Amino acid sequence: NHNHNHNHHFRHADSNASPPSSAVAKISHLKAVVLGDAPASEEDDVVLPSHDFSRQALVPSQQKYLEMYKASIENPAGFWSGIASSEFYWKQRWGDQVYSENLDVRRGNIKIEWFKGGITNVCHNCLDRNIDAGLADKIALYWESNEPGFDATLTYSQLLQRVCQLANYLKSVGVRKGDAVVVYLPMLMELPITMLACARIGAVHSVVFAGFSSESLAQRIVDCKPKVVITCNAVKRGPKTVFLKDIVDAALIDSANKGISVDVCLTYENQLALKREKTKWKEGRDIWWEDVVPKYPTSCDVEWVDAEDPLFLLYTSGSTGKPKGVLHTTGGYMVYTATTFKYAFDYKDSDVYWCTADCGWITGHSYVTYGPMLNGATVLLYEGAPSYPDPGRCWDIVDKYKVTIFYTAPTLVRSLMRDGDKYVTRYSRKSLRVLGSVGEPINPSAWRWFFNVVGGSRCPISDTWWQTETGGFMITPLPGAWPQKPGSATFPFFGVQPVIVDEKGVELDGECSGYLCVKSSWPGAFRTLYGDHERYETTYFKPFPGYYFTGDGCSRDKDGYHWLTGRVDDVINVSGHRIGTAEVESALVSHPQCAEAAVVGVEHQVKGQGIYAFVTPVEGISYSEELRKSLILTVRTQIGAFAAPDKIHWAPALPKTRSGKIMRRILRKIAARQLDELGDTSTLADPGVVDQLIKLADT
Ligand code: PRX
After folding, report:
1. Angstrom distance (rounded) from CA 455 to CA 435
2. Could you tell me the pTM of the whole model?
3. How far apart are CA 579 and CA 356, in angstroms?
């Protein structure tokens, strides 16, 4: 683990300990450097915000944060309704209750509602409202192609026109409020356009990251039964061309075989990657975007929806094989993503914002499309690979567009750090003002490199901890308010009450380490798992009754700072992508020569975690290089390239208890080569299995 490993130190909280006072950092004894004064060295415990930065910040001090935090916890209804009514357009105000919730399984079904009865529309709030406020000619989107030299822009009013044309087209093919639309697009402007068009007409988008395989795509199509699938013919990623339409074709055959056929496949011709003549086509089902969408009117009435009507579904991995359809609704998600974006990045109207995440993940939903657009921000979309044509590309883009806020994942930071400072320092980067990190813990050395080299020791880093399920930031620094500790996500956002519990679910106080849970709801929380409310309750609310369980481990230091230590369930974060070990296992065992597989996460220098698979071949098959390759190919085709195991460890047998349960604890230690920490192996059915595995470790 890259983080400070605080000793397990369980101290129980008094029953009504209030987070605001215990969250006050008493940091005067720590060694500190001030933002902009000098590089942060390994001896510096904290980086203090500079006077200049704080003076212009939305939240200029710890005091101010604490005041606002306290207000948000003591009176969530007042805090959030104040923001909701002053900063958004509502066709009709919500009912008497700002929110209602039950997070305690012992008191009946889990339910979270915010602004119920309020009538609004997220697309209207992103576009029409900002245009009415004078942003018609402000750049909404900058688009930078994979190939240097190709780019495009859309102003807010142009974006609205494009969105309306697509919305009108979708209506013309029968998409109505509540219908699902599956989107399998790379980072083209058409991706946020599609999301906003769906939101405009009350359709529920389900964006599938365009790195998922046809089988994964089919699985999602079968689950949510879309009226339309939207894709493009191909995309360039670095030097490679990826034929997305072929993947969609295969997925549509697959899903039709499972009883779900899709009538319309709207396909954008991405001319820089592939001409339409070379695209495989199914007449009647497939339609070129460019042939139909531009013919529709550039205005389209908004479908006004209830705050609790669904906005989108996004599938994510859990500890079992089947991906979960995380459902977010309209009002709370809108208010929460906009507010978190504004404060965590100290957003100013003049900012140019770039988030390197793909819209296929939650980060792209909340912090490429919705959060920034709701704030009327100028957003940069980059289509390509971050190190193409060379590792300086990101900083080339930063200089070209004068990017002021740059938000990325630790895995990219680490890989660029490896490539060397020269790729960074040959660019000016002086436009940068705030940096952000997301997806996995950022180790202190990567934090310092990001801070010192990329940000020139001038820019605070918002290390934002959150999840697909949470909709928006949960624990994050507010730049200007907090002294930062490299590697710590610091303190909760307004309205969020994180608690650390022991294995019995008892809240711990002070310096402690345990399971991260959240008490009470926040507006951006997911409301259910699509079609499976029971799994929602079982996975998230039953492990520690009374709380939302995050699946993450966390420690709190004596100053109240939070340190995320990674997942405690069978989920791993590989290059910031979330993968269930069970998904990889089920892909592996589908291989005819694989009898059994057990997958664990292992520390990886660049990816954070790598995928380590123990594989038992079927009787009579011996392990070979050919088999290794074919196993990896199976995972790539069933899930996607990003889920390919980094290591296959041949296992003539797996360590199991007498009742047949695989002992993953032991496998994790073998994978990490921590052979002196194997612990008690006497309960294994056959302890000899362990020695056998160790012998085969480096073959
Ligand atoms: O383990 C945590 C890690 O990513 C998980 C959520 O993954 P996903 O739903 O795909 O969302 C990723 C983008 C929000 C969490 O359970 N994680 C995310 N951000 C951080 C993090 N771990 C440590 N520090 C973070 N800043």
Report:
1. 7
2. 0.94
3. 19
**Considering only CA atoms, which residue is closest to atom 26 of ligand 1?**
465
* Residue-wise DSSP of 194-235: HHHHHHHHT-EEEE--TTB-HHHHHHHHHHH--SEEEEES-E
Q: Which residues are catalytic?
A: 569
**Under the phi-then-psi rule, with left for phi > 0, alpha for psi from -120 to 50, and beta for the rest, what region is 667?**
alpha
List, for residues 27-38, the tens digit of each pLDDT value. 667 888 899 889
Q: How many Å lie between the centroid of ligand 1 and the Cα of residue 556?
A: 17
Rounded Cα distance, 643 and 214, in Å? 14
> Are the C-beta atoms of residues 166 and 127 closer than 8 Å to each other?
no
Q: Helix, strand, or coil here: 244?
A: helix
Q: Judge whether 290 and 296 are in contact, CB under 8 Å.
A: no
Residue whose CA lies nearest to ligand 1 atom number 2: 440
Which of ligand 1's atoms lies nearest the C-alpha of 577?
10
Flag whether pLDDT at 305 surpasses 70: yes
Distance CA 379, CA 353 (A): 5
Of 517, 499, 611, 608, residue with least CA distance to 556: 499
Pocket of ligand 1 (CB under 6 A): 316, 361-363, 437-441, 463-468, 489, 550-552, 564, 566-567, 573, 578
Q: Is the peptide bond before 389 cis (omega within 30 degrees of 0)?
A: yes
Measure the CA–CA gap between 23 and 412, rounded to whole angstroms.
31
pLDDT digits (tens, 9 = 90+) for 481-521: 989 999 999 999 999 999 999 999 999 999 999 999 999 99
Ligand 1 centroid distance, CA of 573 (Å): 8
What ipTM was assigned to the predicted interfaces of this complex?
A: 1.00
Element (H, E) at 600: strand 594-604
pLDDT tens string 573-601: 999 899 999 999 999 999 999 999 999 99
Tell me the β-bridge partners of 435.
Answer: 406, 461
Distance 489 CA to ligand 1 centre (A): 11
